[in-house]
Amino acid sequence: MRIKRWHLLIIIIVVLVLATPFVTGLLFKHNYMNLIAAINANSQVKATVTDYQLGWFSSDATLSLSFDNSVPTYPTNPPKEFALSFVMTVTQHITHGPILYAPTEHTWRLAQANVLGVLHMPAQIEAAVLGSRAQEGSLQLDLLSTFFHGYILKLREPSINLQAGMENLTWQGLSGQMNFTLAEQHIHHMKSLVTIGALNASTKAASMFSQPITTTTDITYNADHLWEGSHTLLIPEIILDVTQSESNYMLKNFRAAYFASMSAPHLYNIRAQFTLDNFLSPAFEIGSSNLVLALSKLNADAWNRFIQAVETSPLPNPSHSPSQAMLDNLYILITPDTLISEDVSLNSKNGILTSHGEASWPQPINSLQDMMSKIKLKLSIRVSQSLIQKLITMNVPLTQPTTQSNEVTPTVPANPYAYAYASATDTPPANNTSETTYNNPSTSTLTQARVDQWVQLGYLTVDKNDFITDITYENGVVKANGHEVNEAKH
Questions:
Q1: Residue 364 contacts by C-beta under 8 Å, 6 or more apart in sequence?
Q2: Quick one: which of 118, 120, 167, 435 could link to 405 by a disulfide (CB 3.0–4.6 Å)?
Q3: What is the DSSP letter of 258?
Q4: How many CB atoms lie within 10 A of CB 476?
Q5: Phi-psi bin for 229: left (phi > 0), alpha (psi -120 to 50), beta?
Q6: Residue 371 phi, psi dihedral angles, 5° rounding
Q7: DSSP codes of every residue in 340-353
Q8: How far is CA 358 from CA 170, 292, 446, in A?
Q9: Residue 251 to residue 246: CA distance in whole angstroms
Q10: What are the phi and psi torsion angles at 162 (to 5°)?
Q11: How high is the pLDDT of residue 4?
Q12: For the chain, how are helix, strand and coil distributed in percent, rounded to 5?
């Protein structure tokens, strides 16, 4: 009797062990469909499961990814030249848990399922780019589904090496990892690190080299249906050499960062920061510089509607104005505590530029017109005189054809700078009808005269080698260094 009980217990255990992979696979299929729904809810790429073969220990699925920027929110769809539509296919082999082998990690894991997928672009594109390796696919995906709705996705795109005559392209591909969780068919939290491999391209006209570019993300979806967290982009170095003009361009250690958070219930903060170590071009060189833009205490509900309006619009299209929904939601972003600020610190070979600006709305606003008319602005700027001179000399001189002998022609004084100053101050010299004709002075000369005039009027003050100004705008009045700016004076 005791032996029969042991036999029965062993049979039950064996049945459970054998049944567990099927049950786990069935549960994963339900979570898989929720994952597809989350993809469709959060991007313009639409995913469709075209086939799902549920097996006992493993399953196979085929996924279709389509992208179409023709969105019906516009009165008319984008013209053909701006329409973009294509379909990609993902083939997936799913190994059921609860105990499985993760091939990319080369280890055994306790998990619900492991999905090995291959993304295929349209056949013509893959054949042209990958050649004989087209069967490997454009992107390899390894998705590990943990219990409690957690996922670990690893990406790997193969390297590319193309050569046609004197034109070469070598790219090290792409790799990355994303950890995310789902809640109610929506991504709740995501953390990722993606590396875009080094690129080396050359043609007869130019050559370009870039070091590996990295992006990181750490975001959480909050109760106001908005993302909190950060995104960063790091570009270590890009070098561009233009052969014909013998021009060299270099960008070094460029970093872009985006931060979003809630400062109080229903108030949303956004901050973007851009930094670089060096930018080199034939005409200009920039050293260590920084730009910060911050939007504080926006109406969170209005921002959410604004983002939805943006996401339901097609790709940027010069033939269409912004959607009315975006404009209608613009002014309601503003609250009595909203503050928009900017900080710039630019160091160049020719001098420095620093600025701090703020925009606020101390009075209630009820329309887009109110938003523009009731804004309060403050802007403080310090800029090197040598930098101003450099920017002036970078302007292209503008000339006009000479006049005919019977036309009224301005008399140009012996000092052309005096003429430029007179033109800038709207006090032109006397006219005559002489047959002698002259070209207009260059834009750089006029600009220099305008700068000197601003100094005389007090709009700019000189501190050693720098120009300084504090600009304000309130109740329709613009002031520079406390002096009301009168259009008639300049």
A1: 336, 370
A2: 435
A3: E
A4: 7
A5: left
A6: -60, -40
A7: EEEEEEEEETTEEE
A8: 46, 12, 30
A9: 17
A10: -115, 140
A11: 66
A12: 25, 45, 30
> In terms of residues, how long is the chain?
490
Instruction: Give the orientation angle of helix 443-457 with respect to helix 385-393, to 10 degrees.
Output: 150
- Cβ proximity of 97 and 110 under 8 Å: yes
Closest C-alpha among 181, 173, 174, 175 to residue 152: 181
Residues 6+ apart with CB under 8 A from 53: 59, 60, 61
pLDDT > 70 in the chain, percent: 74
Under 8 Å CB-to-CB from 336, ≥6 apart: which residues? Answer: 361, 362, 364
Report how far residue 25's alpha carbon sits from residue 53's, in angstroms, rounded to the nearest whole number.
11
Quote the CA–CA distance of 377 and 358 in Å, as a whole number.
6
| Preceding amide of 282 cis, omega within 30 | no
- Comparing 437 with 180, which gets the higher pLDDT? 180
Distance, CA of 336 to CA of 340 (rounded, Å)? 12
Separation CA 34–CA 180 (nearest Å) = 13
Residue among 274, 240, 230, 238 nearest 256 (CA): 274
Please count the other Cβ atoms lying within 10 Å of the Cβ belonging to residue 387.
21
Nearest C-alpha neighbor of 91 from the set 55, 129, 136: 136
436 has a pLDDT exceeding 50: no
Q: Which two tokens stand for residue 234?
A: 């790091």
Residue 321 tokens, joined: 């104005």
